[in-house]
Amino acid sequence: MEGGVPDADVSAFSECLSLSWKNPYVLRLAFSAGIGGLLFGYDTGVISGALLYIRDEFTAVDRQTWLQEAIVSTAIAGAIVGAAVGGWMNDRFGRRTSILLADILFLIGSVIMAAAPSPGVLVLGRVFVGLGVGMASMASPLYISEASPTKVRGALVALNSFLITGGQFLSYLINLAFTKAPGTWRWMLGVAAAPAIIQVVLMFTLPESPRWLFRKGKEEEAKAILRKIYPPNDVEEEIQALHDSVATELEQAGSSEKISIIKLLKTKAVRRGLVAGMGLQIFQQFTGINTVMYYSPTIVQLAGVASNQTAMLLSLITSGLNAFGSILSIYFIDKTGRKKLALLSLCGCVVALALLTFTFRQTETHSPMISAVETAHFNNTCPGFSQAVNANEWDCMKCLKAECGFCASDVSSNRLPGACLISNDATKGMCQKEHRAWYTQGCPSKIGWLAIVGLALYIIFFSPGMGTVPWVVNSEIYPLRYRGVCGGIASTTCWVSNLIVSQSFLTLTVAIGTAWTFMLFGFVALVGILFVLIFVPETKGVPIEEVEQMLEERGLHFKFWEKRSPTQKA
């Protein structure tokens, strides 16, 4: 990755395609390490479907909401610890070793979950899986970045992001495939052991990162790997550049082992790199992406879709668009640049979130009224409605807020006044027996389809940009000496932000409404645009030792559209 900046007219995507023919060894490195991204994505997606069947098997889980939250959130909490410890492990024991340990933890967790005899054991398995996911979330892109030629570095790290979204899409397919199989959720959670085993086998056949080997004084081993990665006419220059970079760092540091938070913060390049890297991870999460991935069936129902099956199928489309966006990022990440792609992504997200805000506000304020006649048709009237003084002012939204269900008056015209009834399986059955739609999450709306359009636009804009850029930037913005630790800090930031957003989304929708929740995400995206303009440097095609120099010298950088010449410092 050391060397000159590639020519601007060379497409990194075309280079990446030609690389598969000229040097398949590099792609094998990237795909093998990228399986960690697949595991990452699979775990974030599979639990949404598996939880439905876990509740059916364990009565305690069905009755106690905190157990459901524990099953979801313990994996995220484990990932926070895994990412933090993984940063230290990456520097101490190497990138390859960290990936192998992540696989072993994931394998252990998958087996424990598949065989769990109780909710407590299931939670334990989720902790192991979370530890593995957290370590893999920063070790995999770091390994790929350090084992990739400069021209295709962004595209190959973006491949890891594609495998994350591919894992999420796969999880939805697996959920649908095992809905009628004996053991349902055990298969859903246990099948993740297969790619973990495959990655263990593949990683045993692959070398350690050449950069890490240089850092540890194993230069001959590193040179042998670099000769497999780079063309003969480039390799000697790359070896010399890497040698000089490591020698300079060791000379400046005085010791290869003494790293402290104070030392990190006192180093200007590291401090500015952490601001950019951690900031990108925070805005990636606080613009709401994991509310869409974790709760997309619920969001679809909030828009007025009554059928669970329809909501699941629409969620599958959302996941598919996410994977498609990651494919686009492989093409654009090195052609357009990290900074421009992030800005375009955030601007698109603002538009999509504005559309979602408008749609849900209209749905909330124009929901069908409650008819006393329709309600009296059934024997299970909602207690809140029957005791209300102003029952004639009740609409569908007020009915749902009273923790009751709305039975539409006619399946062909479900926006007419309907019945407000007690929400249980018996009432639902009576409503559907008369060929009426039953709503408990959201109300029927004639513009509910706009919410689906808004979700699709959000994913299409988010995935190629903010879905990929934070991981690429964090894999290349830190000096070699601090890269593992800083990568761990940034990855931990991502998981902490993920936990906060995922655990607060449903609470926010109840407290302030779905519309204002999405508006809040939109404001965060607007702030994110300003952050990227000011604090995030463009690292497209820049050798890593030059990125460090750029961070040392750069000030505020608003003119992101200007091309950076080899002699110009950002």
From TrEMBL:
The Major facilitator superfamily (MFS) profile domain sits at 29-540
GO function terms (MF aspect): myo-inositol:proton symporter activity
Q: What is this protein called?
A: Major facilitator superfamily (MFS) profile domain-containing protein
Domain of life here? Eukaryota
Organism from which the protein derives: Glycine max
Entry's transmembrane regions:
29-54, 66-88, 100-117, 123-144, 156-178, 184-206, 273-293, 313-334, 341-360, 447-473, 485-506, 512-536
- Provide the topology term for how it sits in the membrane: Multi-pass membrane protein
| Xref: SUPFAM superfamilies | MFS general substrate transporter
Query: Where does the record place it?
Result: Membrane
This protein's GO cellular component annotations are: membrane; plasma membrane
Q: What are the UniProt keywords, alphabetically?
A: Membrane, Symport, Transmembrane, Transmembrane helix, Transport
One matching Pfam family, short form? Sugar_tr
Listed under GO biological process in this entry are: myo-inositol transport; transmembrane transport
Q: Which family does it belong to?
A: Belongs to the major facilitator superfamily. Sugar transporter (TC 2.A.1.1) family.
